């Protein structure tokens, strides 16, 4: 937790920043304001971002001072603590002496993720375990449990995603750990919840998508899997939300508790709108996306350069005339087949044939500029490779540069929430196996000779 000296340091650094920022304001005030639409501004953003680096580096994270101890594998679970690490929490990941199996995962099904060179790192493990300290500890032994209990005593949160039946056997269930630390927030992640016939079935992302109906969101007949670890990430987000809420309850009410999240519950929460309308209408009225089933003002179009744009213009009565005039199709305004939204919905194929041909006459950037200048709601359909260099993403820190110890500068997703007084984002790469065992044990009171003895006895490495 921050000391008084550290707080004074922050204050001095902040004062120095404020004095320096005046020069930046004076300089930028002389810059002309671009009249181009935001999408077309392709200026170098590096200087802009570097000008704010000093302030961001001295700001604490929103969760700084919170310690989370994790005994979990794969992504749904560890992904939650990685998110909290983005917000400054200290994460101590406990692995068995063999390590989290995700370390060895270099692909999914037929997908292969070759990171190049002789790297033994897994992109999935990097995703799930950024911002963490890693220790190797055998908690099945008496001495290993003693180390584990000392860590739990020092923790604000414990996170696990082992099966419901396994947790009591290892002594990592909530009743067991609440005896050691009554105010701990105990976070559990499962496949299908704590009750029912599937309560103790292990699960991965595709299984959660399957049972929740997600695999028919983009298909009417054959189920389609949303790639990749989409539901795992959603579950991690839900779990991080639950943990922060548990910490707030502890702060306000002085109690610890168990919070539980599952792949199944997270999938249903993600598809709330789909599930609700199905309940109200007694059937699912939302099939897969079909361009010929959606009106021209809520549709996507290929442009002259082969790129696509997406429009969502509602209410249509407000934008129909403008769309026809901007695309130079005023004759459609006089056609009785298209006089109102109801009439147009009966003639979508005819309208789409017209607009598909028209939109091929200009490039994506040209159409975006024209539509945005006139207040219409269109956006470019970008590929992931484009997103990594999109100025809109870079300037808002939705994509950030991270200096990885092995891969060098890597673009990574930034934290989706900005705080005016706190910094967020990836701070450290995923730990090597047992990288922080010695330092973490010293921090909780073990001496170097005691640590060496535990190594010799095969309790840690």
Summarize the structure.
With 461 residues, this protein is α/β, with parallel strands linked by helices.
Structure description:
Helix content is 41%, strand content 13%. It has 461 residues and is an alpha/beta fold. A hairpin with a 3-residue loop joins strand 12 and strand 13. The longest helix has 25 residues, at 4-28. It is elongated. 30% of the residues are buried.
**Structure annotation, total helices:** 20
- Helical percent range? 40-55%
Strand tally: 13
Structural class given helices, strands, pairing? alpha/beta
Largest sheet: 6 strands, parallel
Strand content: 5-15%
Unreliable spans are: 1-53
In angstroms, what is the radius of gyration? 27 Å
N-to-C span? 27 Å
The average pLDDT value, as a whole number, equals: 87
Observed structural traits:
disordered N terminus, alpha/beta, six-stranded parallel beta sheet, 20 helices, three-stranded antiparallel beta sheet, single chain, 461 residues
Secondary structure blueprint with pairings:
Elements: H1 4-28, H2 46-50, H3 53-58, E1 67-71, H4 78-86, E2 90-95, E3 107-108, E4 111-112, H5 123-129, E5 132-136, H6 142-153, E6 157-160, H7 166-170, H8 174-180, E7 185-190, H9 205-212, H10 230-253, E8 257-262, H11 263-270, H12 272-281, E9 300-302, E10 308-311, H13 316-326, H14 341-345, H15 348-359, H16 364-373, E11 378-381, H17 384-387, H18 391-395, E12 399-404, E13 408-413, H19 437-443, H20 448-456
Helix pairs in contact: 4-10, 9-11, 10-11
């Amino acid at each position: 937790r921050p000391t008084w000296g550290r707080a004074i340091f922050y204050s001095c650094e902040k004062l120095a920043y404020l004095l320096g920022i005046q020069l930046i304001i004076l300089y930028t005030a002389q810059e002309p304001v671009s009249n181009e639409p935001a999408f077309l501004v392709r200026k170098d953003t590096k200087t802009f971002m570097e000008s704010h680096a000093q302030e961001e580096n001295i700001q604490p994270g929103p969760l700084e001072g919170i310690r989370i101890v994790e005994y979990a594998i794969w992504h749904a679970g560890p992904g939650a603590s990685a998110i909290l690490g983005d917000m400054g929490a200290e994460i101590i990941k406990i692995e068995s002496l063999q390590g989290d199996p995700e370390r060895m995962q270099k692909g999914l099904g037929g997908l292969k993720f070759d990171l190049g060179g002789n790297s033994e790192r897994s992109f999935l493990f990097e995703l799930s375990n950024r911002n963490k300290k890693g220790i190797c500890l055998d908690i099945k032994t008496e001495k290993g449990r003693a180390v584990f209990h000392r860590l739990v005593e020092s923790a604000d949160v414990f996170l696990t995603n082992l099966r419901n039946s396994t947790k009591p056997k290892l002594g990592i269930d909530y009743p067991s750990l609440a005896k050691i630390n009554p105010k701990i927030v105990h976070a559990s992640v499962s496949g299908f919840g704590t009750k029912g016939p599937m309560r103790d079935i292990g699960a991965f992302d595709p299984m959660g998508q399957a049972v929740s109906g997600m695999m028919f969101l983009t298909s009417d007949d054959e189920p389609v899997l949303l790639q990749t670890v989409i539901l795992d990430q959603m579950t991690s987000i839900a779990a991080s939300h639950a943990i922060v809420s548990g910490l707030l309850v502890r702060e306000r009410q002085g109690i610890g508790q168990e919070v539980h999240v599952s792949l199944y519950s997270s999938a249903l929460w993600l598809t709330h709108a789909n599930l609700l309308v199905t309940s109200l209408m007694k059937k699912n009225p939302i099939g897969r996306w079909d361009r010929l089933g959606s009106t021209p003002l809520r549709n996507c179009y290929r442009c002259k350069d082969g790129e696509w744009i997406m429009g969502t213009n509602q209410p249509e009565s407000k934008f129909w005339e403008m769309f026809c005039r901007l695309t130079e199709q005023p004759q459609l305004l006089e056609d009785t087949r298209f006089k109102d939204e109801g009439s147009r919905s009966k003639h979508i194929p005819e309208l789409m044939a017209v607009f598909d041909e028209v939109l091929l006459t200009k490039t994506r950037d040209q159409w975006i500029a024209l539509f945005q200048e006139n207040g219409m709601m269109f956006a470019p359909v970008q590929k992931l490779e484009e997103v990594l260099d999109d100025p809109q993403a870079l300037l808002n820190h939705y994509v950030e540069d991270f200096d990885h110890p092995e891969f060098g500068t890597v673009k990574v997703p930034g934290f989706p929430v900005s705080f005016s007084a706190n910094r967020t984002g990836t701070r450290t790469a995923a730990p090597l196996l047992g990288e922080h065992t010695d330092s973490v044990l010293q921090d909780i009171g073990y001496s170097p000779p005691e640590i060496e003895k535990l190594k010799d006895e095969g309790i840690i490495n």
